[in-house]
Fold this protein.
Amino acid sequence: MATTMVDMCAYAGTGNVLKIQHLLHVCSEHHEHSDKEEKKDDKKEDKDKEKINVDLSSQQAVAVLGIALIAMGEDIGADMAFRMFGYLLRYGEPVIRRAVPLALGLISVSNPKINILETLSKFSHDSDPEVAHNAIFAMGVVGAGTNNARLAAMLRQLAQYHAKDPNNLFMVRIAQGLAHLGKGTLTLCPYHSDRQLMNPVAVGGLLAALIAFLDVKNIILGKSHYMLYFLVPAMQPRMLVTFDESLRPLPVPVRVGQAVDVVGQAGKPKTITGFQTHTTPVLLAHGERAELAGDEYIPLTPIIEGFVILRKNPDFDG
């Protein structure tokens, strides 16, 4: 288990296909439990075999999270991982099924895609309570800080459905809190600088919280619910605020639209599409990019997100 975890952390966000293939191979192995074997006189041997089984099953759970951790770096890899998780949910061991909702949350942090939300919504009513707990929490991670109306409606419906079950209701309340993180001004997304750079501390915090959920009954629903605080390093503001050189807030018009990948294109291609013009401060959703609407100010950073200092353009004729 430990070697798998170190291995997957080394390749976090790289999209390395061979590593994903290796982890899928780990998930495909079938381990017989020692209960099915004949009873032997030597009790020590039995104990050792049980330990080996536990380790191997926990390794599979960690491998499922590893697939998501490696594939989260780019969209095509995340879509392919989503399809693989569908197969693991159908044909995998119970341990794997419990880890898959968490992995679905990890490939789409603060990005509430409808297909992922629908899948998680389906498994939030699963007969295995641990799958249901993990699916509800993953819904919170997927919609963290987005104020997504569809997700909020799903969670309200779940709160009514699980009104008599305190454990599931606790999970629903956590997910609702995550969905409205900072009243919609914060995000858990570990990528910054136009999703080009990964924040390793944020990914570590997310991963620590998700690994605690692999044994949700004894850790999160037991006495160690404070493990949820591991999400805090991943929280960061998703607003764009502009300042002048004296660090006073400076409202300026900006265009906000869907980011377009313009790497390697000649000339000055459009970097956003379908934009709307707002005045700062503005909130940037997942996959959105902002650019200044006028030439009056020059940003001191090439990437406009977070806190940006603007300088007056000396060549501007107002």
Notes: The longest helix spans residues 43-71.
